[in-house]
Inverse folding.
C-alpha cells in the first residue's frame, strides 16, 4: 500500500500544479484580421499574443517565414502546457500494476497462512483475500482519478492547439493575399 500512497500523493501534486497553471493561463487565441490592421495592438497580453506581435513585426510581409517562426514559438507554449503530464501517465499506468502486485503478494501470504494453519476457517481465507484485493481496488481508483485529469488536461490543450493553428493559418492567408497591412508595432 505504501507505493500506492506515493502514487496518490504524486498524482495530487501534479494535478494541483497543472490546475494552477491552467487556471492562470490566458487561453485566448482568436483575433480578427481587421483588429490587427486597424489597431496594430492587441490589448490583452498573453504568451500567444506576445509571439504573434513579435512575429508580425518582423514577418508581416513574408507568410512562409511568419508561419515557420510561429510553429517554433507555438511549440514552446505547448511544451509549457504539457509539462508534467507524462508523470500523470506514468502514475496511471503503474498504479494498477502495483495494486495487482499487492494482490499477488497478499494471496501468497494468504495461502501460506492456510498451509500453516491446523484448522482452516472461512475467516482465515477471507481475511487474506480481503487484504489482497484492497491493493487492487486502490490501484484502480488511483488510475481512474489520474486518467480523468490527464484526459481533461490533454483535451483542453488539443482544443487550444486547434485554435492556435486556425488563427495562425488565417493570419498567414492574410499576409499572402495582402489583406494584412504593414504591421510595425
Amino acid at each position: 500500500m505504501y507505493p500506492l500512497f506515493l502514487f496518490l500523493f504524486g498524482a495530487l501534486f501534479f494535478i494541483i500544479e497543472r490546475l494552477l497553471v491552467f487556471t492562470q493561463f490566458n487561453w485566448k487565441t482568436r483575433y480578427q484580421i481587421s483588429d490587427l490592421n486597424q489597431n496594430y495592438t492587441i490589448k490583452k497580453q498573453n504568451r500567444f499574443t506576445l509571439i504573434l506581435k513579435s512575429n508580425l513585426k518582423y514577418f508581416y510581409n513574408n507568410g512562409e517565414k511568419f508561419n515557420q517562426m510561429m510553429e517554433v514559438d507555438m511549440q514552446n507554449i505547448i511544451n509549457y502546457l504539457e509539462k508534467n503530464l507524462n508523470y500523470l501517465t506514468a502514475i496511471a499506468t503503474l498504479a494498477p500494476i502495483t495494486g495487482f502486485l499487492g494482490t499477488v503478494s497478499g494471496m501468497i501470504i494468504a495461502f501460506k497462512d492456510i498451509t500453516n494453519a491446523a484448522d482452516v476457517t472461512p475467516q482465515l481465507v477471507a481475511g487474506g483475500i480481503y487484504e489482497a484485493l484492497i491493493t487492487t481496488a486502490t490501484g484502480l481508483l488511483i488510475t481512474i482519478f489520474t486518467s480523468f485529469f490527464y484526459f481533461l488536461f490533454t483535451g483542453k490543450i488539443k482544443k487550444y492547439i486547434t485554435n492556435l493553428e486556425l488563427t495562425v493559418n488565417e493570419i498567414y492567408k492574410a499576409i499572402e493575399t495582402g489583406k494584412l497591412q504593414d504591421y510595425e508595432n
